[in-house]
Amino acid sequence: MQWYYKVLGEVVGPLSPSQMREKVLQGEIGPQTLVRKGAHGRWLAASQVNNLLPPTSDNAPAEMLDGYGVQLPPGSRLRQPPTKSGTITSPPPENAPLPDAWPPKLTAPRPVSGKAVVSLVLGFASCALLILAGLPALLLGWQALNEIANEKMRGRNMALLGMALGGLGCAATMVLAGWFWLHAPGGSLDLAEVRMRAVGTANMGYALEQQHYVQRAMLDRGGRPALSWRVRLLPYLHQRELYAQFHLDEPWQGPHNERLLTRMPEAYCSPHLQPSEGRTNLLAPVGPGTLFSVQRKLSPLEVPDDKSFTIFAVEVDDSLNAVWSAPEDLQWDPARPAAGLGGLRGGRFLALMLDGSTRLISTKADPELLKALFTAFGGERLNAKLLWPDP
Fold first, then answer.
1. Residues 6+ apart with CB under 8 A from 283
2. What pLDDT band is residue 56 in, cutting at 50, 70 and 90?
3. Which of 52, 238, 306, 343 could tie 317 with a disulfide, CB 3.0–4.6 Å?
4. How far is CA 349 from the centre of its chain?
């Protein structure tokens, strides 16, 4: 390998390693002299080339430092730092060969993961686009972390920030969706159905254990209606403690029972109301031919109609809701079978059937069909498809 150096802007060379050593010893090449290795090498100061200059030189640069980082004056002898074993290494001999691996190789910086960058951009975009950008940000961020770990790339913090922002976008989407579900017209339907079915299960459990359906009201000592059937079903709604606190021989508005009004179970509460209000929209129809038209204990075997198409209770409009523990229910009129219904569901109403199922029924259904659903002793055989005509 041939060497070159510059003197007053003129390139001198090519020179062999031994000739370069002679030029150094003769003082023609000093610490600041530009030298290069090969015809196309990079120009560097001679002081930057290992073993090119002797360890002691009268023309050593003022900024030369010893092995401990202490600045040395011109002409000082470089002191070698101790090795791990505590010994001081001696300088290389004057005839030591020049380094072959020169100029020194520079380590290229690690590349940045493109997926991490995209994840970060999508994460910021999810602030406006929510889950549309948030979900891709999470997926790309996760892939970027795996890519960074396996291929030793950069961008881990960008991937983590993108995933965090994407997660917030997804969470905001769920919060907004829940808000609209609860506040949009008919949006609380699923929750209302779940609560209504819990009451249906309690009613079936009562009928199975007692061998008769629950009666409309619990009577006081004078034989007057005192408490609703909703109080009687409390033990079957996992509310035995609350049931035990009622004075069963005292009316619902009595001095003791009145204090329990605010403890209405959620199963009786429509989703747009609060249990502490003590009012329920779940009322049983009371009228000719209905289940509660019979003023005695009624066995399931005495009901000829299909239990899946016989209404036990309905969700009435807010104008008709009642105190949950009071023996108040829907006064059903066969001439106007849909009166007081459908206001909460845009022309439809939820009905709880005797078998514990729920039905969403249109108020525009055939009046004769509605009469068959509300009555328990007509013996009709109904088709489920007739229950959902277009509103």
1. 313, 314, 316, 320, 321, 322, 328, 329, 330
2. low
3. 343
4. 33
In this structure, is residue 329 part of a structural domain?
yes
Whether residue 362 sits in one domain with residue 268: yes
- What DSSP letter does each residue of 191-210 carry, written as one string? HHHHHHHHHHHHHHHHHHHH
**365 and 258 together in one domain:** yes
Give the number of other Cβ atoms within 10 Å of residue 82's Cβ. 12
Residue 138 has φ and ψ, to the nearest 5°, of -65, -45
Cα 71 → chain centroid? 60
Q: What is the tens place of the pLDDT at every residue in 324-349?
A: 999 999 999 999 999 999 998 889 99
Whether the upstream peptide bond of residue 103 has omega within 30° of 0, thus cis, is: yes
Give every strand in the sheet of 10-15, ordered side by side. 10-15, 3-7, 34-37, 44-45
Band (pLDDT 50/70/90 cuts) for residue 58 is very low
91 within some domain: no
Q: What is the DSSP letter of 92?
A: P
Over the stretch 157-186, which tens digit does the pLDDT of each residue have? 988 998 898 889 888 888 888 777 655 544
Task: Copy the structure tokens of residue 144.
Answer: 């970027």
- Give the three-class secondary structure for 120: helix
The residue with tokens 């000082």 is 76
Tell whether 124 and 247 lie within a shared domain: no
Please say whether the beta carbons of 59 and 30 come within 8 A: yes
Residue 266 and residue 357 in one domain = yes
Which pTM does this prediction carry? Answer: 0.53
| 194 and 301 inside one domain | yes
- Minimum mean pLDDT among 288-292, 313-317, 379-383: which range? 379-383
Of 333, 233, 344, nearest in space to 281 by CA: 344
Rounded to a whole number of angstroms, the CA Rg of the chain reads 45
Range of the domain at 195: 190-387
CA 308 to chain centre: 38
Q: Which DSSP letter does residue 268 get? A: G
In Å, what is the CA distance from 247 to each residue of 240, 259, 265?
A: 13, 11, 18
198 lies in the same domain as 125: no
Please give the Cα distance from 307 to 373 (Å, whole number): 10
Whether the pLDDT of residue 129 is over 70: the answer is yes
